[in-house]
Amino acid sequence: MTFAGLSWGLLGGLAGLTALTVLALYLLRRTPKPQLVSNVTFWMRAAQSSRPRFLRASKIPWIAFLVSLLVALLFVAELGDPRFGKGVRGTTVIVLAAGRSMGAEDAGERRVDRAVREVRQWVDRSTAGGRVAVVRAGMRPETLLALTEDNADLERALEGFELDDGPADLEGALLLADRIVAASGDAGQILLVADRDVEMDTESTRVLVPVGVPSDTIAIADFTARRDPLAAGEFVAEVQLQSFASREASARLRILDGDVPLLDRRVTLAAGEGARLLAQGFSAERAELTARLEEIEITASEDALAVDDQAFAVVAPLSPLRVLFVSPGSLFLEAALAVHPNAQVSQITPDAFGATDLSAYDVLVLDRTPLPEGVEHSSVVLFAPTSGQLAASGEAEAPRVTAFLASHPALHGVRLDGVRVGRSLRFATDPGDQVLIRSGADALAVAREARGRRLVAYGLDLGATDLVEREAFPLMVHDSLHWAASARDEIPLPRRLGEPLYADETVLGPDGEPVSATELAAIRRQGIYHQGERAIAFSGAVHARELSVGTSGGRFRNVDPLPPLAVLVALALLGLMVLEWTLLHRGRLE
User: Fold this and answer.
1) Nearest CA to 71 among 571, 590, 582?
2) What is the 3-state secondary structure of 184-235?
3) Residue 473 pLDDT more than 90?
4) Using one digit for the tens of pLDDT, what is the confidence trace for 380-425?
5) Interatomic CA distance for residues 519 and 96, integer angstroms
6) pLDDT at 69
7) Are 271 and 291 in contact (CB under 8 A)?
8) CA distance linking residue 330 with residue 165, whole number of Å
9) Is 104 helix (H, G, I), strand (E, B) or coil?
10) What DSSP character marks residue 487?
11) How many Cβ atoms sit within 10 Å of the Cβ of residue 551?
12) DSSP letter string, 368-420
């Protein structure tokens, strides 16, 4: 037992002084007021009873004296703030893990609940003989409780304590704790309360208090959504599941756009197995997607962690495809571009091409117009280029379609069987080029991709082929535009937790409430945030990990066996006071 409020010497002196005071109170009794009596013997007895009592007197109220003495000594002990254990001298910095894995349930209790209980006990002991601080080891370490000698400060610091949806930065938290100990100017130690240890050296002594046991879980390991480049307006959602269980597991996977279900499927995974699923063919101007695992079943086990059972992604609003069409005149190309559902076409003549600001357009379509050397643009579709970049090397002899690369995105779904070709240019290919249409050894169409640029060139003379009369032609133009334009596509991948969210206007969190500037500095909760009309997804799926790694198999108490020692002393005081009151009213204290 240790006293945090007073030293042993001061407590001993105070206890002795209190005992003498109680003794003096029982040695000296109030003398009754003299009374006139008619009987001499009775008067002599009254006079005798009014004299001071001594310890050897036969009628001293021993029970009352001992009870009063115990009450007084217990009161002195209560002033000393008694604690269990011997306490810890110097400075103690406790690092409390607050990462996603601390939310795992073991035997019906979360790891963080056990950890907080351990922290309370250590703070109670440590403040008995020194100062204590608590560092919260979340995605970004922070001081939860500054150095203090009052164990009551911890409860105020724990108000509103929540776990992050990402992993704990234990290394950074230990460095912060080490600096706190060094700055205190006193001998100290670091206490790490976590479900894993880290390999690093600290100047101060470090002790691990492990919480958690090996557990099973299945998780969403990745979740993304993107526009389908081959289907205007549609998007594709892809989810990666991973089993971190030692047994077979199954779960119901649901992908929702708001409240609208896009996918609802039961998935079964063997131990350690992964699975990739796609949801596609959905059309929307924008989408805010949620992937959830529900009704999880693990053979002879349970899913220990809930935070990895959901992930978030967004599909950006459908933006128009800005096309600059440069041509001396082509009815077939104009018609093919006009039926594109998302293209905003600006048409100019070759003479005006050089003075045009090309950066304002997503794709250039050049019909019998060369792309000059030195002109840079990320997405270009050329028809019959005689000079410039990706220029033809000459006329093809007796051109005909002998082969075409149907697997290339620029020809997705396009069939060129039986197409008649009257005239066509041929291309010389560079390493890395892909031949889309071949006439024997001649390349009639080529796709080139290099350094963030995509160029596709067709040598076919559109006035000398029946391709323009087939439905394959507008489809070929559509696919070529989207393949070339995908070089500039920005797929809105979910942001990583812990990253800042810069904003000059109010940001609403997943719960619809404004997010404080402190939270914006490092986003810790996964979900979809809204900045004006813009939706931003923060997902913790990338942090999915096996729970059993680095955990301890120790046993932990579900509840503390005893309340704090000060509470026990107070209860003893109350019991003695009740006992004294009972004895007094029964006449046992005379």
Assistant:
1) 571
2) HCCCEEEEEEECCCCCCCCCCEEEEEECCCCCECEEEEEEEEEECCCCCCEE
3) yes
4) 999 999 898 888 999 998 999 999 998 898 998 888 989 999 999 9
5) 20
6) 74
7) no
8) 57
9) coil
10) T
11) 22
12) S--B-TT---SEEEEES--SBTT---EEPSS----EE-TTSGGGTT---TT--
Q: Evaluate whether 129 touches 2 at the Cβ level (below 8 Å).
A: yes
CA distances from 210 to 95, 194, 195, 246, 549 (A): 12, 5, 5, 22, 12
At 280, is the pLDDT very low, low, confident or very high (cuts 50, 70, 90)? confident
The count of other CB atoms within 10 Å of the CB of residue 8 is 10
How big is the chain by its Cα radius of gyration, in Å? 41
In this predicted structure, the answer to whether residue 279 has a pLDDT above a threshold of 80 is yes
Residue 164: which H helix or E strand, with range? none
Facing residues of 256 across strands?
A: 261, 290
Cα–Cα distance, 445 to 429 (Å, whole number)? 10
CB atoms within 10 A of CB 431: 5
pLDDT tens-digit readout, 124-176 = 776 655 788 999 999 999 999 898 888 778 888 888 889 999 889 999 999 99
Nearest to 420 by CA among 441, 436, 398, 435: 398
pLDDT digits (tens, 9 = 90+) for 296-355: 999 988 898 888 999 999 987 777 889 999 999 999 999 999 888 778 899 999 988 876
Domains of the chain, start order: 2-82+572-585 (no CATH), 90-212 (3.40.50.410), 218-316 (2.60.40.10), 321-485 (3.40.50.880), 495-539 (no CATH)
Go through 107-143 and write b for each residue having 16 or more CB atoms within 10 A of its CB, e for each that does not. Answer: eeebbbbbbbbbbbbbbbbbbbbbbbbbbbbbbbbeb
* Global confidence as pTM: 0.59
